[in-house]
């Protein structure tokens, strides 16, 4: 009987602590039942890796409120709503922490050789190593590019480094086309078109795509055959290997490798977090 009373008291105490925290974040407020209980349990035992030294729940209740605590709470509750279990959510929080404040050396990226789009004064430089024939790259890269005009406007710029993967059929031919388009100053026009037409790929299609993307098809075809184009592709891949890239897409945020999930909401949220860190934003708006 005493054990039952103690257990009930503990559950009540956890719920009492979690309720104010959950009510402060839109993703958490929408949860109910077992999902709300799970989110509360995680928020009551996990700690932010910056800004506040207490649990996420207690950091949310503090005034001023740690901005990172709000982000992490929303992240946890989004995952709960998506049906992820407790172990997976805790692992994701750990990977995010390693990505954002881990002590690994920053990557060395040749930004002069990268195709960059976005505000030059943006506080976050995102570099993606991607294969031209990587299925997930064909979805994530255009989505990130689009976010530069949305949530990430003024916050980030995006640089692309071509990293052909041997297991992706046509990766070398497609990679050479990406490099050729970059050398002609129309990388993003061509790459976004190629990713949009991903399922239609063949080496012969690329000249048609070049024309559609506004490139001179004869000059484009000539560049595909030039040794300098292949040398540039090889250099891009070697750089990725030196930076520990083994698969695509691999992202770096201000030189730090992103080890978290590659879902668009997670990546965008991490970029916003990095922008806040660079700009010295620590507290959420009241």
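-> sequence recovered:
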């Amino acid at each position: 009987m005493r054990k039952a009373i103690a257990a009930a008291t503990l559950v009540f105490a956890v719920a009492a602590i979690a309720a104010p925290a959950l009510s402060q974040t839109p993703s958490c407020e929408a949860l109910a039942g077992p999902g709300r209980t799970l989110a509360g349990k995680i928020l009551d035992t996990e700690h932010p890796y910056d800004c506040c030294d207490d649990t996420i729940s207690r950091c949310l209740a503090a005034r001023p409120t740690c901005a990172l605590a709000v982000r992490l709470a929303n992240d946890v509750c989004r995952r709960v709503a998506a049906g992820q279990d407790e172990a997976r959510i805790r692992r994701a929080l750990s990977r995010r922490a390693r990505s954002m404040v881990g002590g690994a050396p920053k990557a060395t990226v040749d930004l002069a050789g990268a195709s960059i789009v976005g505000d030059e004064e943006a506080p976050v430089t995102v570099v993606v190593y991607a294969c031209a024939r990587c299925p997930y790259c064909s979805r994530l890269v255009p989505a990130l590019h689009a976010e530069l005009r949305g949530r990430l406007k003024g916050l980030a710029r995006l640089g692309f480094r071509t990293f052909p993967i041997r297991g992706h059929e046509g990766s070398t031919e497609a990679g050479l086309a990406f490099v050729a388009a970059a050398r002609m100053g129309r990388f993003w026009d061509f790459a976004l078109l190629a990713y949009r037409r991903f399922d239609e790929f063949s080496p012969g299609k690329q000249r048609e795509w070049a024309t559609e993307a506004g490139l001179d098809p004869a000059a484009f075809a000539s560049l595909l055959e030039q040794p300098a184009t292949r040398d540039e592709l090889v250099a891009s891949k070697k750089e990725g290997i030196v930076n520990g890239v083994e698969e695509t897409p691999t992202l770096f945020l201000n030189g730090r490798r992103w080890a978290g999930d590659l879902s668009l909401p997670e990546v965008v949220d991490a970029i916003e977090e990095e922008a806040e860190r660079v700009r010295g934003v620590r507290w959420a708006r009241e």
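Residues 2-23 form the longest helix (22 residues).
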